[in-house]
Amino acid sequence: MSREQREALDTLFRTGPLEVGGDHLQQREVFTRMLTSRPLPDDVILSPGSLGGVPVLEIGIDGAAPKGTLLWFHGGFYVFGSARTSAALASHVARRTGMKVISVDYRLAPEHPYPAALDDALAAYRAVLDTTGDTGPAGLAVVGESAGAGLAAALLVSVREQNLPMPAAGILFSPYADLTLTGTSMTTKQAVDPSFSPEAIAVRAKDYVGAADASEPLISPMFADLCGLPPLLIQAGSNELLLDDAVRLAARVAAHDVPVTLEVTPGVPHLFQAFAAMLEEGEAALRRVGDFLTAAFTSGAPR
């Protein structure tokens, strides 16, 4: 059954309308339609707002008293996406964990290249610290998908550098953490990645990097000093070009004495967790996310 599910998901990606390396304005519309075409469950509540002058979307489950807060960063190679495009996955996590999600609508490249997204992330983080009440940062985790996971990692480095309180944990789904695109999986996984090509990712990387250097640690946290970060859960699929970003980032995090759990699920693509409704591996991965957050929020303390 699982093999049939994986093959169906692979076909869905390969025949989809998104052209990652195409005109960014056109592909933004395609990306948004793809990720918002299915209605959310009736009990999912979306509440637009602002944190630190940055637009956000609060995502919660009707009738659920939040046990903590997840500051969420959407994917889309820093060029596509919005808080709304990640609402389906975010609401799944909110439902399983009893957490409130605050999804950040950071500014997008190429109109707003680095460091705009990081500036927005840091502004939202500073503001959300004031909303966590008695739990403080021990009731807060940072979550990101793809580019949003790279942004979350860069944010945590900035939080440490600015001596701000650390959250209890971080979750990185398929992190886009090396914009120099030097991971070996960029070559070895071309045949099995149903979503992207190295050439398309290179186009989008230039959009975000702009006039900066792609190897700068806050652009590519793969090259950052990662000491002092909170416990991290990193998940990826084996059938994705960004697999090596996840594997190498986890190794560097571990080398910097940070507790880290790396989970690579065989035979599934980038951000397979978003398809938990049709893929057993996605459902299982989200259960592990819930377990990780429960443990982190139980044992976490302000740093």
Q: Could you tell me how far the N terminus lies from the C terminus, measured between alpha carbons in angstroms?
A: 44 Å
Helix content: 25-40%
Largest sheet: number of strands, sense, barrel closure: 8 strands, mixed
| Secondary-structure class | alpha/beta
Q: Runs with pLDDT <50, length 5+?
A: none
Radius of gyration over C-alpha positions, nearest whole angstrom: 17 Å
Shape: globular
Helix/strand order, N-terminal first: HHEEEHEHEHEHHEHEH
Mean pLDDT: 95
Number of helices: 9
Strand content: 15-25%
Explain what this protein looks like in three dimensions.
The model has no long low-confidence stretch (mean pLDDT 95). With 303 residues, this protein is of the alpha/beta class. The longest helix has 20 residues, at 280-299. The chain has nine helices and eight strands. Helix 3 (87-97) packs across helix 9 and helix 4 crosses helix 5 (147-161). Helix 8 links the parallel strand 7 (232-237) and strand 8 (260-265). The protein is globular and about 50 Å long. The protein has an eight-stranded mixed sheet, sandwiched between helices. It has helices at 2-14, 24-36, 87-97, 116-129, 147-161, 185-188, 198-209, 243-255, 280-299; strands at 44-51, 54-61, 69-73, 100-104, 140-145, 169-173, 232-237, 260-265.
Which characteristics define this entry?
single chain, 303 residues, alpha/beta, eight-stranded mixed sheet, 9 helices, 8 strands
